[in-house]
Amino acid sequence: MTTVPPGRSRPAITLVVVLLAFVTVPMSISGAAVALPDIGDDLHTAGAPLQWVMNAYNLTFASFMLVTGSAADLFGRRRAFATGASVFAVGSLAAAVAPGIVLLDIARALSGIGAAGVFASGGAILATTFDGAARTRAFAALGSAAGLGLAAGPTLSGWLVGALGWRATFGLHAALVAVALAGIGFVAESRAPQRPRLDVTGAVVFVAGLGLLVLGAVQGPEWGWASPGVLALLVVGVGLLVFFVVLQSRSAAPVLDLTLVKNRRFFALCMVPVVSTFGFVTLLTYLPTYLVGASGFSAERAGTVLLLMTAPVLLAPPLSGALVNRGVSPRVLITVSLVLFAGGNAWLTVIESDSSVAAIAGPLLMTGLGAGISFGVGDGTAMSLVEPEQAGMATGFLNTMRIGSEAIVIAVYGAVLVSLISTRVGSQELAAKVAAGDQSVSGSGVLADGFTHALHIALYGTAAVCAVGAVAIAVALAPPRRDTAAATPAREDAQLSTEVA
């Protein structure tokens, strides 16, 4: 059900409002990382309290995504978007004026809750505002916006930190979302026709379960994966998520309708961002530390090199969306994107501490192109497979898979790197400094060789995951058997394209 104030709804303004928010939310992840050293110096803190500037945001962002998406379907997607954006802006403003690290961490956790509302309802707004080819173009633009925020975050934050200090970074995020909120009156309100009471018990169990699971993954490298605290967090988190599934199977108004998960093709499309985390986000996180710690690059030069991987993320989504509108199967494009991840990661094993930028340009461009294609096609295709009344829930689940996998995979990937480096350098503490790109230990041939050895093994591992994921997702996206018997191969390939357009 859609309600529109007479003469007020403007699809073009709706798109701009959502895109501006989708630029800002990932910018708050990548931009905050650059500000950490200055935050530590200014607030006289280090270690875990400082790291929680990032972890608190990611933890609440992932944990509240599904709940805010389901709430958007019930209470209104525009209302959920406006509420989430307001909470994000307040949290960012509080972070900008925080006098100490504890209040800064709390403000970042609040921002993460708001970010979940923005992401879960923003995609649902576009899915219910646009149809056919226009929806494909809108989601392609959404992919470019998210990629722009992720790529531009470190650069903008670096400039602001250098010119005005770290507080200006969070002030910018608050200001950008405030500008987006100025256009919220031109966004049509929509909600599910049935408005049952929100399953509060299911919501609490899910937030607690996923929160504990992500917390266990985040703390694993610091406390030790076999420590009682980490094991307890992981076991209780998994147990609560299993209990959540049981609750949802018996609920008349579930937070997550399990028929969504049972939809083979929708679930396969929700796994695309998980594979993207392995193939793209891990490199976005750890390649700069390699270039700084092992190759001796400055932070600015490492960021510039990374543009080889992030530039295609900005340019490819509109191209892939246009190809879908011209009849190219989304299944083919998604499979190609995952194969590019596998090839790019495997090819990047040519990297050595003394490699030239030209030597690694090819694999970085290939990996970035894979990300750009999947960003432009995956979400829009997934939303085409669900009913409009479930748009918020579906977007929430899709982005829960995306953000949750990022928090967990990045933590595990970092722990694997440290473990592999320590086998070469003989010290877990020294290995952690090397993996973090600590310039105080850079320049040593032994340490650089240890980091290179670890990175090569990790790259082969992620390439294997992406290759398996490409095959599994391609198979899962195949048309149902009952359609295959009467369909020509060309019609099978075109089926998802028809559903999108």
From TrEMBL:
Domain Major facilitator superfamily (MFS) profile as annotated: residue spans: 14-481
Alphabetized UniProt keyword annotations: Antibiotic resistance, Membrane, Transmembrane, Transmembrane helix
Predominant cellular place of this UniProt entry's protein: membrane
Record-linked InterPro entries: MFS (IPR011701), MFS_dom (IPR020846), MFS_trans_sf (IPR036259), Tet-R_TetA/multi-R_MdtG-like (IPR001958)
Membrane topology of the entry: Multi-pass membrane protein
Coiled coil: none
Annotated TM spans: 12-36, 56-75, 82-103, 109-127, 139-162, 168-188, 200-219, 225-246, 266-286, 306-325, 332-351, 357-382, 403-421, 457-478
Repeat keyword on record: no
Subcellular location per the Swiss-Prot or TrEMBL entry: Cell membrane
A Pfam family it matches: MFS_1
Name listed for the protein in its UniProt record: MFS transporter
Organism of provenance: Streptomyces cinerochromogenes
